[in-house]
Write a structure and sequence with these properties.
With about 650 residues, this protein is mostly beta strands. Helix content is about 15%, strand content about 35%. It contains six helices and 26 strands. The strands form four sheets. Strands 13-15-16-18-19-20-21-22-23-24-25-26 form a twelve-stranded antiparallel beta barrel. Strands 1, 3, 5, 6, 7 and 10 form a six-stranded mixed sheet that branches. Helix 3 runs antiparallel to helix 4, helix 3 runs parallel beside helix 5 and helix 4 runs antiparallel to helix 5. The two termini are about 15 Å apart.
Length: about 650
């Protein structure tokens, strides 16, 4: 607590200037302007807007306390140069009779070197943070963003400069305190995800949320200045270069004194219930505009001291008033001039590396942000499931998988298998699966009836976590422990001496656990997935040990090693994916053998949760002598928690922590 209180003692000299309420209002309107939702929206190059959209929901859907809900932006698909932030800036809930109005405010920015926009699709989600994270509201939203050339005035750049110096010390101090509280992976890079907050104290979690808001505004100011370096007006580009050179300097000599709040005004917020991630504070009307002296310097009408926010004079409240569109005509074509940039702040040039969707602008290593990075990274919350490999996601859902095959083993038979699968997410990282296999065997002999019987159910517990990012995407690794519950005895086909499992086991040997009915198995394994651009890669590895049950006729114990790999292409985003897979299983006991299977097919996704799949399979090992081409299909319903809950969501608000 003492460490957190230290944040309130941050001296006013850290920003290098006292700010008036009117100046703070001008900074707020410049760095985080709120725009009402529209199908077509415009962002200036290097600019940031907060899009506001209100959605109605039945009042009985929101029954819990405010702290039990969170809002996220998920399913983000955005054009190059446009970044939609996953963490929402704020959201509000207002009673409206039998309904409640939920207002989402989410952050969108354009990179400083963005030239053109395009269509963006996001999903605004309100979710309970407790229980199974039930979704209260999911609203799919589509925009068409137009990128216009930046046309800042000297006053705009001055607001950027002092806004940066206002927020940067707070961001730096908050990051320091968070690291001291155990969140070692806190990063000041733009839109970098927070580390998990599920085990920290509520005040620390609230501080982490406030830290992300400070960081967003710091980078908003920085992008404005970087974009202004390319301005064809030499006075504007020169002023931007001067400000960039002095952003983190304690020596402000040579910084021009330009008034930037002569017409700033604030409006009071409506009475609303505000939920995490931030509080919406009431804004009192500002004092009269700042007085400008004859020498052109700004004479402040108030004094800012950090920690005086409770009195209303020190905070920089966020406004709900949309920013009016500028009526200034756009300038001529933007011409990048690297010679006007300060050392380390050069804009991106033609031919620079953009691998992983990240555009990089680096500054001097001695300032606050030793490696400023402008990154355009689209985090895809879940991984597209492949054809037959284990699902790496943690989800609620169920599936029916069917595989048809013929077998010639002393007699000809149809040996099809159907797998009924269900899974439950206990937490965002831990889930339980149960799979019940069944077999249908129809032997081609007179008067031999067909059989439809159950195989060994499989219980599995899985734990998912993420590895460090590779090319802008974090690989997911899922560990599994599984147990095949024995269902003795084996099933003989009436009027014959054939055992049904002998046919089914051969055709579906990749799922070995399912049809060794007189054996139980325990296993450990892992699966991993990673996506680069439209290409997805998956692997899995499992080690299982089989032991006979009491009274079994066959007493052999053995181990199996099963492994597989998948390669997928998703040319239509998450609508459909085409996959090639290989699976193999090696049996270490008695008649040692290794069998290979190859699969080729496609999996689709519609109505957000429904996933149909169809594939062809062919055995490449010894089984190919008794079984040929196989046909598989699956219909899956999957409600994946990672679609709505990211790693840094368990946050409890404490709005007085910093102010």
């Amino acid at each position: 607590m003492i460490a957190l209180q230290g944040l309130l003692l941050l001296p006013a000299t850290a920003a290098g200037k006292s700010l008036t309420d009117a100046e703070k209002e001008a900074i707020k309107e410049r760095l985080a302007p709120i725009e009402p939702y529209a199908a077509k929206m415009s962002i200036e190059a290097g600019g940031t807007i907060i899009v506001e959209r209100t959605v109605e929901v039945a009042a009985n859907r929101i029954k819990q306390k405010a702290k039990d809900y969170e809002a996220f932006v998920t399913g983000i698909v955005a054009p190059d140069g446009v970044v939609v932030h996953q963490r929402m800036d704020e959201f509000e809930i207002v009673d409206a009779g039998p309904k409640k109005k939920v207002t989402f405010r989410y952050v969108v920015h354009a990179d400083a070197n963005a030239k053109s926009g395009g269509r963006a699709r996001v999903t605004l989600t309100l979710v309970e943070r407790t229980g199974f994270a039930n979704t209260v509201l999911k609203e799919q939203t589509t925009h068409w963003f137009d990128i216009r050339a930046a046309s800042p005035t000297a006053e705009d750049l001055t607001a950027d400069f002092w806004g940066y110096r206002y927020y940067a010390p707070r961001m730096k101090k908050a990051a320091s305190l968070l690291k001291r509280k155990g969140l070692s992976r806190i990063s000041t890079q733009d839109d970098k995800r927070l580390p998990p907050l599920d085990r920290v104290q509520p005040k620390v979690a609230s501080l982490a949320v406030r830290f992300t808001r400070y960081r967003m505004r710091v980078w908003s100011a920085h992008r404005h200045l970087v974009a202004a370096l390319q301005n064809p007006n030499p006075q504007i580009s020169s002023l931007a270069r001067t400000y960039l050179a002095k952003l983190d300097s304690s020596d402000l000599s040579g910084v021009p004194t330009i008034p930037f709040a002569a017409t700033a005004a604030a409006t009071a917020k409506a009475e609303v219930e505000t939920l995490e991630p931030v509080a919406t504070e009431k804004v009192e009307p500002p004092p009269p505009p700042a007085r400008v002296t004859g020498e052109g310097t700004l004479a402040p009408v108030g004094t800012y001291e950090y920690g005086s926010d409770r009195s209303g004079s020190g905070s920089l409240p966020e406004s709900s008033r949309p920013r009016e569109e500028s009526t200034k005509p756009p300038p001529g074509p933007v011409v990048a001039d690297a010679s006007t940039a300060a050392p380390g702040d050069q804009p991106k040039v033609e031919g620079s590396d953009t691998s992983g969707g990240a555009d990089v602008v680096v500054t001097d290593s001695g300032d606050l942000l030793s490696a400023r990075t402008q990154r355009k990274v689209t985090y895809i919350p879940t991984y597209f499931r492949s054809l037959t490999l284990d699902d790496p996601n943690i989800a609620h859902g169920g599936a029916i998988r069917f595989s048809w095959a013929t077998v010639q083993l002393g007699a000809s038979a149809i040996a099809s298998a159907m797998f009924f699968d269900g899974q439950v997410a206990i937490t965002r990282f831990f889930g339980i699966e149960v799979t019940v296999p069944t077999e249908y065997v129809n032997i081609d002999l007179p008067r031999a009836p067909s059989l439809f019987v159950m195989g060994n159910p499989l219980l599995a517990a899985k734990w998912r976590f993420y590895l460090p990012e590779i090319e802008g995407r974090a690989p997911v690794l899922t560990l599994r422990g599984r147990w095949a519950v024995p269902v003795p005895p084996q099933h003989r086909i009436p009027l014959t001496n054939f055992v049904a499992e002998h046919f089914t086991r051969e055709a579906h040997f990749a799922d070995t656990y399912a049809f060794f009915l007189e054996k139980t198995s325990l296993g450990l394994g892992t699966s991993a997935a990673w996506q680069y651009d439209m290409f997805e890669f998956g692997v899995e590895l499992h080690l299982d040990y089989f032991t006979p049950v009491e009274g079994a006729q066959e007493r052999t114990s053995f181990a199996t090693l099963s492994y597989g790999a998948s390669f997928g292409v998703l040319p239509f985003e998450d609508l459909v994916g085409f996959f090639a897979e290989a699976r193999a299983i090696s049996l270490f006991a008695g008649p040692q053998r290794t069998e290979f299977f190859a699969y080729l097919g496609a999996r689709g996704k519609f109505a957000e949760y429904i996933e149909p799949a169809l594939w062809l399979g062919y055995p490449l090992g010894s089984i190919s002598n008794v079984s040929g081409l196989q046909v598989g299909a699956e219909l899956r319903f999957s409600y994946d928690l990672q679609d709505i809950v990211e790693d840094d969501t368990r946050v409890t608000r404490d709005d007085t922590l910093l102010d």
